[in-house]
Amino acid sequence: MWRKIRPYVGFSAIALGVGALSAVLTRREMAAFSRLVQPPLSPPAWLFPVVWTALYLLMGVGMAAVWRGSRGAGRRGAVTLWAAQLAVNFFWTILFFSLQARLFAFFWLVLLFALVLSMTASFDRYSKAAARLQLPYLAWLVFAGYLNLAVYLLNR
After folding, report:
1. How confident is the model at residue 106 (pLDDT cuts 50, 70, 90)?
2. Residues 6+ apart with CB under 8 A from 47
């Protein structure tokens, strides 16, 4: 039984850990962010950790499903894309909040979107369900792109 659920626990824990680390490292700057001019459609601050927790769980569950359903080069490719998008995701938070490089962060987010799209396509070869689990992530990244660019334009 543990052998079947271990990848789900492991990959979800890694994704949640990366998200938690980025939140801890940027906590002070996130508080200052609330003082900036916010664009229309900005959700309340409490919603961001709720959404990101769900998205990190979906990333982990999706990767675990692919891990269990693939072998060899296919598995390595999927893991590489998963790890790459997770790293880019982590550094977006640093760029946007800590470094306040908001325009650069927007283009970094475009890179993240491309990586997640590639990861989703890779997942689709091994598990349709794993690929579908990434659709909320892609949708959120589009919305995050709007917020990122709007915050840059409203506060430069």
Report:
1. very high
2. none
For 134-147, give one letter per residue: b (16+ CB within 10 A) or e.
beebeebbeebbeb
CB atoms within 10 A of CB 105: 25
pLDDT at 150 over 90: yes
* Mean pLDDT value of segment 21-33: 91
Which pair of tokens denotes residue 102? 């908001």
Q: Are 38 and 64 in contact (CB under 8 A)?
A: no
Both structure tokens of 4: 């079947």
Average pLDDT over residues 45-71: 95
> Which residue type, as a one-letter code, is found at position 153?
L
H/E stretch holding 81 reads helix 72-93
Q: Is residue 103 predicted with pLDDT exceeding 90?
A: yes
DSSP string covering 18-73, please? HHHHHHHHTHHHHHHHTTSPPPTTPPPTTHHHHHHHHHHHHHHHHHHHHHHH--HH
The verdict on pTM exceeding 0.90 is yes
Domains and CATH numbers, the chain: 2-31+43-154 (1.20.1260.100)
